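Teaching note: in complex prediction, the entire set of molecules is handled at once rather than each chain in isolation. The prompt given to students was simply: 'Predict the structure of this complex.' The entities are:
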Amino acid sequence: MFANPFKLKKRGILGMNARNIEYISKYNDRKNYPLVDDKLKTKQIAQKHGIAVPDLIGFIQYQVEINTFEKMIENKNSFVIKPAQGSGGRGILVIVNTDNDEYIKPSGEKVSHSDVRRHISNILSGLYSLGGKNDVAVFESLVDFDEAFEGFSFEGVPDVRIIVYKGYPAMAMMRLSTAESDGKANLHQGAVGVGIDIVTGKAISAVQHDSPATHHPDTGKDLLTLVVPHWETILPLSAKCYDITEMGYLGADIVIDKKRGPLILELNARPGLAIQIANDLGALKRFDEIDKVAGSHKSLKERVQFSKDMFGAK
Amino acid sequence: MKSKNQIVLFSFILIAFAIGVMSYKVNVLGFPLFSGETKKIWNIEAKVTFKGKGENAFISMALPSEQNGMVIVNEESSSANYGYTTSIIENVKRGEWAKRKVESDQTLYYSIDVVTDKYFEVKDTAQIQEPDLPEVSRAVIQAAKSLVKDVYDKSADNLSFTSLLIKEFNSKEPSQSVTMIKNNFMKTSLSKRNTLLDLLHSKKINARAIGSLILEDGKKNAILKPMIEVYQNKKWQLFDINKAKIANDETVFIWQRGGESLLDAEGVTKSKVRFSITENVVSARTAALEKDLKNQNALLDFSLFVLPNASQNAFKLLLLVPLGALVVVIMRVIVGLKTSGTFMPILLSMAFMQTQLLPGILMFVLVVSMGLIVRSYLSHLNLLLVARISAVVIVVVAIMAFVAIMAQKLELEYAASITFFPMVILAWTIERMSIVWEEDGPKEVLLQGGGSLIVSILAFFAMTNETFSFITFNFPESLLAVLGLIILLGRYSGYRLSELYRFKSMVD
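The expected output is the structure of the full assembly:
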């Protein structure tokens, strides 16, 4: 029933306690947290440094402004509402189409005008934010995802999660939504994670609910045939997030838009551990390699090259 | 790495300090480590009886003072209508009763509670000073001259002289001179003691009269037993006049010291004093507490025991919370259980302490599931978060009232204790659970709710454990040990038990 902890250690698997003590609290400076915890701020700083992000439609900060949301999305058929300080995919409402007075979710489920208003109200009240503090509802354009992912994702936008350790891309995973995850790309909600080779962007192995998977549960597509397009730009993009946030242990979530290419969707200061199962690889193996050279590579290009040289799938 | 060592050192210092203070309290102050231990408290009651003859009465009695190895924890004088004061005459404390125009038989009571404590030493130096030797009557000296010289030659110091002298007078085949002295000067044990004192004084040996009581349960109408104390090496040594010196004086309580009379009565007749001794078995904690508070031990002077009873009881409960916190830390850091709200399980287990475990769990599940149903309706009403939670609070109160009434009708007694549930916490739990239900599905709700319940049940067992609660209240310093443990656990970077399960597929 239980694995031998020494075997886990030997495989270099990072545990939750070690992640919190040895990595997050050591390399992620508290003062930089707001940059990644507040999606609005992340967006602003990313744009300042010329990093591509999904378009911001607008945001609502106060309850009295809630009724203005219709005006904000007047010309949009599809959009996403998310809490600026939400975590773990909580409180994200995706609307793919508008039909008269109703909004349609990826699942085809219709939500009314007042449902949306209540959702915004909940966001502002801090229902989804860390510590329950008042929050801001952010409106974003819905990403029109690349055709390469056709059949790999069910009713949702797939994204690439890259763990960037000390500025080096260390591990990558594709997160594919399923019927169970309700269009969301979070593994604990039932999304599929596909480990991605750092060098080629090709799938290595896949996981759903912490156990190995081979095919998408809804579409039946062979997950190992997945190849992430624009891989050459995705790696430096993720590494650059380190430069703007100075977070030593960072999760960069990247989506690939049909027209605009890779966009930074959000950053995460506490990326989870499932990426190890998706890659069938312990993260510590790579972190230790990076620890040996950290600081010797000055430029972003050198860092990305190091990752490519070292972390190719065997 | 360095900071890790520091933390380990710091927590070990905390734990060592806590254990150090605890063992000091156990070994020196006599605190018991477990609640079942008992100790004796001796109650000694002096009963003074006399007959009034219509005059103003003034009764004065020598009272016991502090002595090595015995602590007087309580002192009481009950004497209806008598004025009572104490005074100190020639270093001896005396109790004084007075009343005008006393008629017929009268009784006064004076009682003390005594606890033995082998570490207790009298700080008062007055008793150690060498007293002036009193004049000795010539007749005794003349009679015993040769005997005293004989004994003196055979002895080495004051103590051996005294013990040899006592031996002579208790010998089965006494010499002629001893028999003569015994017949003339030692008719009662009191005069025997005084004669012995005279002989000691004639050799310039510091000795004084003692009136003592042997502590024996159920003794009634006892009188003071005459004894002698001899001064040697800046210490007084007690001698039984019928035996050699007394090594173990744990059962001897010295009531009276010096030659002053035990009881002086003016304006009355037939005055006498009798003692009765009772042994009370109390919990060792009570005995230790009474004794140490009396001694004004600095450690206890700033302890919880100086608080009024009501606050002491409140602290009894509060001091258990760290134990609950320890359980939460262990379950989350080592086991990896998910709970809804970090410390909600502790509040829940505190509620269980009031309601009993099973009824508590039932009521919790009942209130939360009914709350979830109501909450799912409330979510359609489109309320602001604060208003919605307030609404849930009211609903929770209503559910609690409903449960209590139903239980009353069904004659289930314990249900009234449902009021002990922290309703705001319940309301938040319901709110969070309903969000989890919407976002992550009912499975996650069961996982988190079950996790919270398991943690709170474990915390309940830790907090209701008698040994634990006895130790946390009587040794609040044990909290430092808990703190040290929690700090240590806070640096635990190994795998959680749940992760051994989660990552199992990776090593197979």
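Point out the following to students. Residues 347 and 422 of chain B are 7 Å apart (CA to CA). The mean pLDDT of chain B is 80.
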